[in-house]
Amino acid sequence: MHFSRKTTSASVLALLMGACSAVPVSDNLEPVATGGAYQAQYRDFAVSRDAVGYLLAPQINASKCRPFAAEAQGSGGGGKYSGIIPAALRGEVLSRGDLVDFRMPEDTTFTGDYVISRDGTLKLPYLKPVPAQGRSTAQVAADVRRALLAGGYYDDAPDIALLVKDFASARVGVTGAVFEPQPVDIGGVPGDQVDSRRQEALGASTEGRNLSVALRRAGGIRPDADLSAVRITRNGTHYTLDLRGVLEGRTFEDVMLIGGDEIEVPTRLCFQDKMMRPGLISPPGISLYLSNLTQPAAGNAPSAIGQTVREVPYGTRFMQAVIDANCVGGPRASSADRSAALFSRNPMTGVSVVIQRKVETMRSRADRDDYDPYLLPGDAIACYDSGITNISEIARLMALAGAIAVVP
């Protein structure tokens, strides 16, 4: 390939002008610049650096919230919407697929291990199926005792022992203000993990079928969720729970779920800053998509951007991830004027949003937290070098091109 000196000079000039030009402003469908998007922290800087005041983003976010469902019903946190779990949802209950041990002294006809059938019943020899789905072992044992007496197998009420040997997994549906609404499988032994001593022991217990597990399996609750009115539907009956205490450090009685349960998390139609913290029902963490700088490293490997960098705790902010991705630092004279872009999506509408921040601007402003968004699952970050760094890269490339160019 042949290059003339005139063509090379013109190319260098064009590249230099492009390197020094301002980065185009991103367009968004939602009113991001004025604070009308999912997070008010996305908005443009409202005042100069010297005129900063109190942080306004949490207040702007809260102004969009509709009242908690519990308060809208006038219950004041009591009655139907109290934190007390309804009696029908308390304790350990059976679900289809559970393995139970049924015993009667000196009786080999009925004694044995049984699996709760797909239709939710316990099926013993010669007896009609006994309803078991959603019931305790004591309730099921009482029905079996009555069936034995009614069938004439015993004249007096026999001694019966019904114990759970293993809780099966359960498939439940999760909808509403969670990041990944979908049917989820909860409970069961993960992978090939087997505790032989527990298998041999009588009785069983599990935390794997709890409500908190189902919410996390569905991506965790979103920041717009209304935790005052989480609804569980079981066998056509609706139960409404107030779970606000989960994120406030108060005692929380986790509900054990059974196969076929439906969970619905309503929304307050606003971003709630206080919900951006790790918790029992929040997302387990955030896996980021990152694009780092040419300087100080030419790729992810030398920048040490691996799995531990791409995964950050829930509640992490944009600039924390920018620093974690090695997008900040280096010679101040040549690389201080860097910027970073955040690619996110409004989980309520599905509409994407892009914002860009100057790293040094965020560093120098006292109200930086007012414009530093929280990261959400699926977010991506792109880092841009400074103009001087761009020019130095262009010079390096042109020097390389000059070394291989053939001038007539």
TrEMBL record:
PROSITE patterns cross-referenced by the UniProt entry: PROKAR_LIPOPROTEIN
Gene3D superfamilies noted in UniProt: Outer membrane lipoprotein wza domain like
Keyword Ribosomal protein attached: no
Keywords linked to the UniProt accession: Cell outer membrane, Ion transport, Lipoprotein, Membrane, Palmitate, Polysaccharide transport, Porin, Signal, Sugar transport, Transmembrane, Transmembrane beta strand, Transport
UniProt membrane topology term: Multi-pass membrane protein
Domain of life of the organism encoding this protein: Bacteria
A GO MF label: polysaccharide transmembrane transporter activity
Ranges for domain SLBB: 207-265
Main location: membrane
Annotated GO biological process: monoatomic ion transport
Family: Belongs to the BexD/CtrA/VexA family.
Protein name, per record: Polysaccharide biosynthesis protein
Organism of origin: Seohaeicola zhoushanensis
